[in-house]
Amino acid sequence: MPARDAEPFPRAVLDVLGAAADRPVFEHGTRVVTGAELLDLVARVATALRRKGLGPGDGVALLLGVTVEAFATILAAHVVGARVVGVRPGLTDTQVEHLLGLDIKLVVRDTADLVTTGLVTVPAAALHCDGHPGDVARLIHTSGSTGAPKACAQTYASMANAWNTRPAAWPPAVRELAARLGRYLVFGSLSSQVMFEYAVLTLTAGGTVVVADDPATAITDLRATARVITVPGLAKLVAAQRHSPTGLDTLEALLVSGSPLTAERHREALDVLGPVLFHGYGQTETGMISMATPSDPPGTVGKPPVDVEIRDGELYVRTPSQASSYWGAPEESAEVFVDGWVRTRDLGRFDEDGNLVLTGRARDVVIVNANLFHIGPIEHVLAGHPDVAEAYVVAAPDDDTGEAVHAFVVPRADRVPRLAELRELVTARLGAACAPVRVTAITEPPVAPSGKPDKRRLAKLIGTA
C-alpha cells in the first residue's frame, strides 16, 4: 500500500472531504450532506466494490443519475483503482451494449444496492487509494457518431495532475473561477467530464455541489452561484433576461462550454448578465485548454496556461491531464496523440495580447448540445435510404442546440425521401442528436477544385458560411 501522501487520485478529494468535516458539501433538495458524511459514503461503497472483487485495473460501468450516491460511487470506484466507464444518457441501445462490452467486470445501475450491501463501519483514515499511476483511471467517451463512441483513456497519473485538485497549480482564470463556486449546480449526467470536474473543483475550493432537478429555474430556486451552460442555453437566458428580468442576484459564474462563443454574443451576454461569463475551451482528449474570464476580450478564450502550438493553422496542445490514447483504437490514437501532443483538429490564432481566438474546425463535424458528432457516419446512414443516391451533411446554426444537421440529398429517380423517414433512420443507428432537422434535394453537389464535394458552397445555400 502506498504512503498516504503518495496515493493517486482521488486521495486529494478524500482529504478535502475529511477537512470539510461538518461543512455542507453536497445538497439535493432538502438533503444536505457534510464532508464527513460523503466521505463515509465513499468508504462504504468502496468496501462494497472490494467485496464484489473489484480492484486495480478492473472495468466498472456506471449507469447512474445525478445523486449524492452516484458521485460517491464514482469516487469509490477510483479508490479501488478501477477503470471507470460512465454511460451518459442519450446513447442508442447498440452504443450502450458496446460500452458494456469494453472489458467490464461490474455494471452498477443502482447505488442503493451497493450501499446496502456495503454497510460497514470504515474509519475515514482507513480509506486507501489503490490506483496505479500508469493504469487507465477512466474512459471518457466522445459522441459516438461513428456508431461506437471513442473512449479517451485517462490514467491515474493524469487525473492526479489535473488542476481541479491542486490549488497551488491553479492558473489565474481557474483561481478566479474557484472563488465563485460557492454553490455549483450539477445536472444531466455526472459522466460528463465538464460536470464532474467542476464539481471536484467546487469541493476543493470549499463550495457546495447542488443537484438541480430542473436547471432552467435552478439559479433562482436554489440560489446558485455557478452553473455550466451551452451557447444556445446562454442565448436563451440572455433573451429571457432582456424580455422579463428575473432575480439572478446570486449568480457569479456561467461556465460556457461546448462550442465557440462569437464576440457579438459574448458582448451581449456580458452587457445583460454582468461580469459572470467564463468561456472555456477544451476537449474530451485534453481537458481544459484555456478559459476566458469576464475581463478577457470577448470572442477569445483567454490566455492558455498550457503548451499550444499552431501548425498550419491547426492547434496542437499539451495539458497536465490529457488522455493517453483512444482505448482499443491504435490507428485513431496515432492520428491524434502525436509525440506527447494532442492534435485538436481545431483552427485558431493568437491576438496581439496572447489571447487564443478559435477560427474554425479542421474536421468535418457538427456540435449538437455541446456534443461533437462526426459527419461522415451520418452521411453513410443517409445514403443507405432506398430513395437516396448521395447524401451530404453540413452543420447548420440552431437556436435550440447550437448546431444541427442539415442534409443535402441527391434523390433516386426523383423520389425525395421524407424528413421524418431520414430522422427515424439516423436516430435508430446513431442517436437523435445526429438526425437531420432539415433536408434539401439537389441534382448534384457543387465540386471543389480538388474534385471533392464542396461543403462550403453547400453551407452557403443555407447561410452558414
TrEMBL record:
Any GO MF annotation of the entry: long-chain fatty acid-CoA ligase activity
EC numbers, comma separated: 6.2.1.3
Domain AMP-binding enzyme C-terminal residue range list: 378-452
Name recorded for this polypeptide: Long-chain-fatty-acid--CoA ligase
Gene3D superfamilies: 3.30.300.30, N-terminal domain of ligase-like
Organism of provenance: Lentzea fradiae
GO cellular component, one term: membrane
Signal peptide feature range: none
Membrane-topology annotation of the record: Peripheral membrane protein
Location of the AMP-dependent synthetase/ligase domain: 21-327
Pathway per the UniProt entry: Lipid metabolism; fatty acid beta-oxidation
Keyword hit for Cytoplasm: no
Superkingdom of origin: Bacteria
Subcellular location: Membrane
Keywords (A to Z) from UniProt: Ligase, Membrane
